[in-house]
Design brief:
Elements: H1 4-25, H2 27-49, H3 66-85, H4 101-119, E1 130-133, E2 137-140, H5 141-165, H6 171-177
Helix pairs in contact: 2-4, 2-5, 3-4, 3-5
């Protein structure tokens, strides 16, 4: 007869092996989810760092303002995360690019929450599946995942530069100095 300790250890080993196998089976999706968590934290912190009276700031007339970047992220998160996951994007009331900082940041948090929920169900079984993005252009699900991740990185870099141009440190620079 096996002792309860032996059975417990066997169960823990089986669960650990199962979890490791599951994670090893979805490395691309796991990487996207990890990046979503990091990007949400950094982009929300960057949006919160800007004073409300600086939301119209843009380095040149051709560039987006801080508020426009946050509004663009809000729309992009719902669109891209719904496409990648196959989940329906939430029906939200329209929010102007000139909305208040509080409204834009609250919406940014909502859209990243949607991304977290939607991407939780994504796996690597259909990376080659076809999606329509940006009009009627075909992309694979894997390409859409990279586009989503690149979009977050692109807009974080914009906000980081805008913060520095206003004498403020971006969230990732603050961590480095701690």
């Amino acid at each position: 007869m096996k002792s309860p300790l032996t059975l417990t250890l066997l169960a823990v080993c089986c669960l650990s092996a199962s979890a490791a196998a599951q994670s090893a089976a979805t490395p691309v999706s796991d990487a996207l989810r990890s990046n979503q968590q990091r990007s949400a934290k950094n982009l929300i912190a960057a949006a919160e760092e800007f004073p409300a009276d600086k939301y119209a700031f843009k380095p040149t007339p051709a560039q987006m303002s801080v508020g426009e970047i946050v509004a663009h992220l809000n729309e992009g998160n719902d669109f891209l995360c719904s496409k990648v996951s196959g989940a329906e994007a939430p029906k939200r009331t329209a929010l102007a690019k000139t909305a208040s900082k509080d409204q834009l940041v609250a919406r940014l948090k909502e859209t990243f929450q949607f991304c977290e929920t939607a991407l939780a169900k994504v796996n690597d079984s259909d990376l080659g599946g076809k999606l329509k993005l940006f009009g009627d252009r075909d992309f694979t699900r894997a390409q859409a995942m990279f586009i989503t991740s690149d979009d977050w990185a692109d807009h974080y870099s914009q906000l980081a530069i805008y913060l520095r141009l206003n004498g403020l440190l971006p969230p990732t620079a603050k961590k480095a100095q701690s």
